[in-house]
Amino acid sequence: MRIGLFATCLGDTLFPEAVKSTAVLLARLGHDVVFPPGQTCCGQMHVNTGYQREPVPLVRNFADQFGDASIDAVVMPSGSCAGSVRHQHEIVAERYGDAALRAGVATVKAKTYELSEFLVDVLDVDDVGAYFPHRVTYHPTCHSLRMLRVGDKPLKLLRAVDSIDLVELPEADSCCGFGGTFAVKNAETSTAMLQDKMRNIATTGADVCTAGDSSCLMHIGGGLSRIRSGTRTLHLAQILSATRTSPYVPTEAVR
């Protein structure tokens, strides 16, 4: 397949390794990965904050960049951005777009996937040949869980990883407290939710907490580093891209 890779804003600016790992993984599975150079923000943060007219140019650009018929699928290491493309873009196009935008959005929506659902649902793959000899716990992010309904697909992929020690996270489906501007506008509530999440992570004794969204990992990772927990955060793509011949080499953990 010819796969269009969407980097996302956080992937582009703060977590490029998650994007690179996605490309490495998909290429290892035998697919042609392309990166449309004109891609920008998907507009999720605008819509989430209540500005639905403003992201029209971003939605149009996304449809233009990934609407090429030669691109069989659009894949991104983010449940929240995939959720935006599949649900919010249609809302924006219907309310503020023209017929061309609505058609473009419908075309791209039909072939857009978050990484884990693409691997399991489209490629029908559970075992991607990964090797990760570390103790890991998994946090299901809100958009992937509630908007995309990826279910246990990330866990299916993790269970098949060679030498992994996968530990269940208590109260896993509880929000980490990030929620974009929610963490700024409701800082005290966000911090309390984060503390609950970190407390549950601590009970697992995990070396790594993984998830499918860099935004949640940024929030959780920041909290874990401040309390010097010794648990690092790592995107799911980075675990799945690691192999015996090209293993993940962690930097020194903060303790």
Automatic annotation (TrEMBL):
UniProt domain Cysteine-rich: residue ranges: 4-85, 136-220
Region forming the signal peptide: none
InterPro entries, sorted: Cys_rich_dom
Protein name per its UniProtKB record: (Fe-S)-binding protein
Organism whose genome encodes this protein: Streptomyces sanglieri
